[in-house]
Hints:
Order of helices and strands: HEEHEEEEEEEHHHHEE
Number of helices: 6
Mean pLDDT: 94
Largest sheet: 5 strands, mixed
Distance between the termini: 28 Å
Structural class: alpha+beta
Number of strands: 11
Helix content: 10-25%
Strand content: 15-25%
Low-confidence stretches: 219-226
Oligomer: single chain
Amino acid sequence: MPELPEVETIRRGIISYLINQPVEKFIIADKKFRAHLLPNIEKIMQGEKLIDITRRGKYLLFNFPVGTLIIHLGMSGSLCLVDKNHILQKHQHAALLFPKNTLVFTDPRKFGNFFWIEKKPLEHERLKDLGKEPFDNDFNGEYLFQKARNKKIPVKQFLMENKIVTGIGNIYASEILFAAKIKPNQSVQKISLKSWNKIAECAREILKAAIVHGGSTIHTYVNSRGESGGYQKMLRVYGKEGKKCPICKTIIKSFRLGQRSTFYCPRCQR
DNA sequence: CGAACGACCTGCAGGC
DNA sequence: TGCCTGCAGGTCGTTC
């Protein structure tokens, strides 16, 4: 579900409701989801005031004075704000109760992860090797070009490597390469600096537009209504196999690349 | 070392 | 209606 735009949309959607609020209670409803936490975490977090919610790649960081709760939503995870009297439903594995709202973590497939780290969250094992953020000033064609040396993989898989650039997943990788007019299976060895610049530029544009429109999937995180994000209807190739290319009307094709479905226009992308 | 692939989970759509 | 297969927004660990 969540790539960078969805995670960022969640962050923006909940932060104003929760910032500076103390945690009244932290509930772990399902012991089997991937909660890498201390046994006494409920006690540790009780009464702690939420200082800020930040993001690194697809990870959300809930910063408290005593430490940081790091949340990754996996494939099917979501966070939503519900009323105080909410009763946890199926697949709702954890909840953070604040004075005015409750934040609920829902994740049918249980690929999502919770971590707790006391100091320096960016040095957490899962975060320390992440690549550049697409919106970093020095994320550009030159950076990608350098990273691609010594690599022999298709460009789409390259863009989905979090050690190269964080936050681009299966949907946006296809969308970005369509915008950049590059074939998903093009070897990174064959891509010119000029094309890398185009890819970097398109990545920023696509991701920015997706954030502005509330992501492609879940949109409303308040009162738990799971609506589609506004960017869903702006997708140009992802999930469009058999439909016409919005630019040239050629039929969009799809194939498997690295075990992931991949979409492209055979005429626009070369 | 990089690259390929199975594993982790549950739900749903489609074919028979 | 039910069973089977394959697929779904991610990423880790193992193997070659």
